[in-house]
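Whiteboard transcription, Tuesday session. T.W. wrote the structure tokens on the left side:
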């Protein structure tokens, strides 16, 4: 963990955006027929345009009352830093839910950084060796000590995606089916996992 503690510095945090700022960044990219970050293509621009509509409606996802109560009892400040990009469908589905949940706690601040602009952070938080996003890194707000992580998707959706990959579908069909399944879940699997993870993060913040 020592390397990870040093990866996320105050300078990295200073380059981050709140969810509202990230949403404006995506809107500006779409207006220019672009995506976010350093990787640009017409394909990624189209994905970003489609994802913008998903993000704007997903922010209204119903929140689990038990999780909301838990969030409101968080005793020490946490920083939720999320690696994301506008072209990522999983980020479009899950980042707004994370932002809405963070809004419920006076002690949690959610910030976003772009995967392509923070390669060292991304490399420190790989998933099975891959640069999968969104990736939430929960940090002690003062020390930036890592408390835990989540992402890129809930395990139940991850299992579905792995099965989907076995079908060797065309890329657009794969993306469409994966997103549809995630949207139908409506943030419930994510919230169920956070209900389990958050107490661990709180305990870590107290040590």
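and on the right, the sequence the group agreed on:
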């Amino acid at each position: 963990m020592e390397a990870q503690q040093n990866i996320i510095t105050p300078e990295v945090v200073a380059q981050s955006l709140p969810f509202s700022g990230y949403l404006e960044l995506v809107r500006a990219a779409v207006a220019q027929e672009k995506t976010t970050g350093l990787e640009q293509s017409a394909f990624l621009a189209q994905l970003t345009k489609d994802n913008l509509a998903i993000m704007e409606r997903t922010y209204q996802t119903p929140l689990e009352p038990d999780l909301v109560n838990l969030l409101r009892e968080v005793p020490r400040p946490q920083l939720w830093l999320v690696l994301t990009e506008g072209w990522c469908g999983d980020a479009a589905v899950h980042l707004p839910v994370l932002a809405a949940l963070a809004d419920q706690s006076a002690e949690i601040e959610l910030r976003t950084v772009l995967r392509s602009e923070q390669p060292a952070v991304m490399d420190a938080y790989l998933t099975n060796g891959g640069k999968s996003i969104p990736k939430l890194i929960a940090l002690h707000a003062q020390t930036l000590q890592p408390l835990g992580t989540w992402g890129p998707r809930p395990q139940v959706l991850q299992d579905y995606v792995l099965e989907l990959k076995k079908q060797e579908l065309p890329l657009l069909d794969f993306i469409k089916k994966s997103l549809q399944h995630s949207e139908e879940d409506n943030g419930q699997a994510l919230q169920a996992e956070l209900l389990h993870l958050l107490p661990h993060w709180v305990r870590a913040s107290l040590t």
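Someone added at the bottom: The longest strand covers residues 78-84.
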